[in-house]
Amino acid sequence: MIADLAFYNENYGGDSKIPASLFPLWERRAETELIYITGGKIEGKDDECIKMCICEMAEVLYNYVHRDGIKSENNDGYSVVYQDRDTKQKLLEIAKVYLGTTEFLFRGVDCES
After folding, report:
1. I need a surface site. Which of 3, 78, 92, 100 has the fewest CB within 10 A?
2. Is the whole-model pTM more than 0.85?
3. What ranges do the domains of the chain cover?
């Protein structure tokens, strides 16, 4: 686990959207997604930008599953609006915000090695 519950509560924002008992599950799912996005470059790293990214990704995943993709509802005339953006795309955008200026998203070949 890269980002633990203490980091989520104390450093990420303190306004916990994910219940404490469920945080490890959603952190692992977010971490797995980020490992995939970075091609494994974050494994074994302890950077704060990685932890922040994982926390935000965990919230996106939790919120999407918790609401089943529903963006808004209206009870008067029964109207439901589903999210129009793919969750995977949202996770990639989050990774770009937090890791865009780091080597973690670089997919090219390092010619100096």
Report:
1. 78
2. no
3. 5-105
How many other CB atoms are there within 10 angstroms of residue 2's CB atom?
21
Nearest to 103 by CA among 20, 18, 40, 22: 40
Give the number of C-alpha atoms closer than 13 A to the C-alpha of residue 12, restricted to the C-beta side: 24
Q: With the C-alpha atoms ordered 95, 96, 101, 105, is the resulting torsion angle positive or negative?
A: positive
Bridge partners of 36?
none
- pLDDT per residue over 60-79, tens digit each? 999 887 765 555 565 666 66
Arithmetic mean of pLDDT, 24-45: 94
CB atoms within 10 A of CB 23: 22
